[in-house]
Each structure stands twice: as C-alpha cells, then as structure tokens.
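MODEL INPUT / OUTPUT PAIR
PAIR INDEX: 1
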Amino acid sequence: MAGAEETAEYLDGYAELLTAVSTTGRRLTRDELELRRTLGERAAEQGHALRGLVQEHLAATRCAWPSVVRHADSVLAAVEQAVDAFAEGYERAQRLAVRREEAARREFIDDLLHGGSDLGRLAEQSERFGLRLAHAHAVAVAAGPDAYTETDPVGRGVAAALHARFGDRSILLTTKDGRLICIAPGDQMEVLTYFAKQAHAATDGGQVALGRPHPGAGGVVRSYEEALGALDLAERLHLDEPVLNAADLLVYPVLTRDREAMADLVRTALGPLQEARGGAEPLLETLTLYFDAGCVAAEAARRLSLSVRALTYRLQRIHQLTGSDPADPVHRYTLQTAVIGARLLDWPAKAI
C-alpha cells in the first residue's frame, strides 16, 4: 500500500466532505463526484494501486467517524458514493491506458511485419514488447478456417499454453490478417514448434508455416514472408502437412523465379496432354499422384482408385502424347518439374 504522504493528494477534501454531509445529511453533488473521479484518474496515471487507495479512504473515514456519526446513514452513503466515483475514474484511466497500449502494440507489429518502416526506430521500440531485434528471430504463421484475433478464445488459449510452457521468454504472440503469429528468438525454435502444435489443434487442423531465422528487424519481415509464402505454396500445391518449414520448400521459389521459363516448360512438356479425351486434367492428376507416390505404380493406383493395369495404360498414353516416359529416369525429372510448374501456375485451368 502506498504511504500516506504519497496518497494524501488523492484524499484532498475527503474528510471535509464527510463533515459537510454529517451536518446536513445531504447527498454528494455532481461536482463533488466529478472531483473524486478526477482524483481517481490521476492516481491511476501515477501508477498507484486501487486497493491501497480504497484502504486509505476507509482509514480516513474511520478517523473522521467520531465527528460525523451524527448522520451515520448519510455519511456511509456518501462514503459509498465517493469511493465508487474514485474507482470509476481510476478504471476509466486504466481502460484508456490499455487502449493506448494496444494501439501502440498494434502499430509496432504492423510496422515490424510490413518492413517499410524505420528499422532503427523499430529496434528502439522492440524491447518494450519483449524483442531484441539485434538478435536473429524466426516467425511462425498459423492459418485456419476462421479469422482470429488476440482476444478470441483461440488466440488466448494458444498464448496461455505458450506462457505456461516457456514463461516470460522473448516471445511475441499476435495476429495479422486473421492469422495467428508467433515471433521467437532464432535459437529457440522449440518455441515455434510448440506454437505450431498448439495452433494446429486450436484452429481445428489449420496449417502452420515456420520461416527461417534471420537477424535484425528486417530479418523478422523476411521470416514472416517466408512463412506466408509457404502457406501460399501449400494451397497451390495441395500440400496437407500440418506444419510446413520454409527451409524445406526453397526449391519452389527457385522454380518460379523465372515465370516465363516455367510456363514455357509446362506448355512444351505437358501441352500435348490437352489432346487426350477429357482434356489434360485426368492425365495431369495421374502424373501428380504417381510422382507423389514415389513412382510406385501400386501406391499411385490406390490413390487414384484405379487398377494397376489402368494406371499403366494412362502412363503409356502420357508417353505417347508427350514423347516422355514417366518411368524413365531421364524423362522423369523434366516431367516432374513441369507438373510442379503446372500446379504453381494453375494450369490448365488458367492459360499460360
């Protein structure tokens, strides 16, 4: 509890107020109540605890009691009014401070993940929010069927699980564009792994992508963009793994860096499939699942709900149309790369 000298200003006029009420039996006026609210706001702004201040009010009431007992009921009603107004002002100031802090935190997060802000200023602000941007950090992003906020049950549950497991480590949990985001030191990847586990469960099977660790404020942006890129690739390539590591998917950005070259490969290697009855889609799906099955015909046939004989016929038809044999190691690389390109470019649904 704060000392009497520190809190004296917040009880300014309180004893005199009780004396006045005991004389007339009146209730407190609007101006008197507003003054108590103002004092409550000032106490909150100065960081004093409400519990201690209420105790000081009760102690002051006890001291004044012998001289104000004449109208005890009126005085007790005035005490109730005064303390309630003081607490109202205190809580009003606290709510305003919380809103300001939330706005400052959201601005910091938006600037941090946007990447276009003053990196020096971000580094200065970062420790206030638990980050030391001079070190390397990595970012995990969780996407589920719904849009999430920090205050909804999903966000609060994941945050509680992480804090219970890792305490007050330099971890920043937030949301952006409806996704859950965790930023952790680059040498503490176990934090992101645990976040991925909790977020996958909390979002009813949503996917989580982990960016690689990178140093500095710009490194946070880079890791965040890697995680977003991994989620985008998963959607386009129909990857259903619950946790995606950007480091494991680096080949795909390389393949699509020269989009025109990739489109040319797809047109050349797979374009003839459009001459097949039913178009290119069935044979492209056959190639996709054949390669996904490790070129094991029996497994590919099972995934396609075909007999091995029917699958073999489709592979032969692909060979006839394209001139490339999926079972031939020399041809396989070209066809598989073209299949990946087709998935990335959404061909043949979209013309390339």
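PAIR INDEX: 2
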Amino acid sequence: MSVGMAAPRAPFACDPDRSRGRLFAEPPSRTRSPFRRDCDRVIHSTAFRRLKHKTQVFVFHEGDHYRTRLSHSLEVAQIARALARMLGLDEDLTETLALAHDLGHPPFGHAGERALDKCLQAHGGFDHNAQTLRVLTSLEHRYPEFDGLNLTWEALEGIVKHNGPLTDHDGTPLGHYRDRGVPVGIRDHDEIFSLELFSFASLEAQVAAIADDIAYDAHDIDDGLRAALFAVDDLKAMPLTAAMITEIDAHYPALDQDRRGAELVRELISYLITAVFSEATKRLDAAQPKSVDDIRHHATQLIQFPAEAAEAEAGIKSFLKLHMYRHQRIMRIMGDAERIVSDLFAHYLENPSQMSSDWLEGSADDSEAARARRIGNFIAGMTDRYALIEHQRLFDSTPDLR
C-alpha cells in the first residue's frame, strides 16, 4: 500500500461498536459513533478552548504566529489521523486522543507545571497527564447528569497510557512513575473505572503519542527559526536535517530563509511519518495481532521510530533543548512565569476566598490536601493571560514575560 492511502479497518483497530462503554451509561447517538461523540465533546469543552491562550514555548503576547497548546494539538491531530488512516485504525478515537492530550497543562508550559509540582509536593505533586484525566472526568461541568465529559473507556485508557503501562501486573509503578508512584488522580479513578494500568494502550493511543513527538520536533524548529533563536544553517549540525537542507538548496538555490525553513519542516514531518509507518508495518507483520487486546498485551509498544529515525529524532530534541528551551531569553521568561504561578498558589492558600466564585462551592469543608488540590486545579485551568491578570490584581509587581 502506498504511504498516504487509506487502509481498510484493521482487525487490531479499536471498534466503536465494541467499546467498553462509559462510566455513566448513556443512550447511543443516532448519528455518531461513540468515538466521534468523544471527539466532539473534547472540541466543545471549555478546557479545549482555553488551550488557545496557553503557552507551548512562547508566551501568547510575544507574537500571534507562534504555536499555542491549541495549535499544537491541532497539528498533532493532523499527523495522528494521517498515520491512523494508513494503518487502518479508528481515526475518530485517534483524533480524540490527539486533541485531548494537553488539556491538563497549566499556563506557561512546562514552567507552570514545574511550579505547580513544587507547590503541591506535600499533596502528591502535579502531573499533567493526571490533570487531563481530572478535566475529562470531573472538572468540566457541561452536562446535567455527570461531571466531566463521560468519555468512553477507550478514550480514557488512551489518555492515561499513551506512553505505555503505568504499573506491572502487581501494581508496582513503572517508568516515569517508578520513583513517585502513580498520581493520586489516576489511582482514584482507576478504582472506580479500571483502565488496566498494567497493559499497553491501543494503537490509536500509541499513534497519538508519537504524533506528539513529530509535531514538537518539526514545529518547535519552525518557531525557533521565526524567533531567530537559531538559523536554518545551524540545523546542519545534525546529519538528517543537513541532508534535507542540502537537497532543498539544490532544488531551490535562490530560496529566501523563511521558505527554506518551511520546506525543511515539511520534509521533516514527511520523513518521520513515513519512518513510523514503515516500522509499524514491520512490527505488526511480525506480531500478527488479531485484536486490540493482542495489542494491549504485546510485550512492547508497536508504534515506534525505527532505529535510524529514533537517533535522528533524539538529536533534534537535543538541539532544541540547547538552542531553544535553554536559550537565555526563554529561561528568563520561564523563570518569571514559575514565580507567577508560585505566587498565585501561595496567595490562594492563605486567602482561598479570593479565588473565582466558581471554585468556592464546598470549599469550607476542605481538608488541607483538598484545599491545595482545589487551588492547583484552579491555577491549572488558567490561561497565560488570566494568570497574568490575576497576579496583577493581587500583587504590586508582575513580570512582563517578554
């Protein structure tokens, strides 16, 4: 099959007609599959709209053309749907997972997450994956019969386990959670609607996860070039992008720098998608899964970069870490952003009544841990702009973040 062509539905794809259902039973839609309904609910959620003004790398007022969490999520969905189509997976579920994967991120990107994690250290810390699950299962208030969006089991499983199992069969935390344990928000939900934390997620979730990596790499290069943190020729430091730049220059010797960079980004996305598809085809041919349960109980994640592409992709991340994420300008702004989040948390902890009135119902009976988590949930839902406005309201001096 040619890359880009739609494959017939694979036997190991998630089948909406065989979904394990929702925590709260609902009558089926007359016009939409369960997974399409999930996707529409994510798109119409308040948390999704807020992503428009949440930092990816650059704070919103640095320019209208840089990625936000919203534009990043749309780009992840585009890449993920392309791979799902090629592999015969359920595109609606894949899109749901791609669009929802960042709903738990606080304002100011990873700086905001670091700050909230420190603020909540005595109460289990902050984990954006667990926060996404909270948003989807309790913090959205749009429906009369339940909190959250009441998504299907397959959607929640994919959100929580898109990077692999969280525990072994005995419940021992694995990987990222080995030292700190599975976050309390995930543990609590798993007790009432088990997501089988010991198994892999569906291929739809694995595709959404690797699409996130592809989007990060390509579009952070694009934003870094736009911000003049590095130039196109600086990317010749890596063999893969050096070869692409050489080929672009041979075809278009008089191309201006903006178009030269844009062409490189397109070539990179195409290369990585093709590499993932090729590797997935090999692994699936070897594994011969007959159902989605075969995927969940396979020994390894089946959607991965091949070795050569994985090495190149790691090199891109290292380049971006050095030249972008740790650039003096970015580090200064993110340091100020951490201070804003920490200031807000400390202030609300001492003066909880100064939170938005929407967050005060039932707060009088909060324990210390519940109050801290409530404040964390409130701040995590803020956009960059609202966090700055709140800080200006409550404090005499607020960093400019420029």
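PAIR 2 NOTE: The chain has a mean pLDDT of 93.
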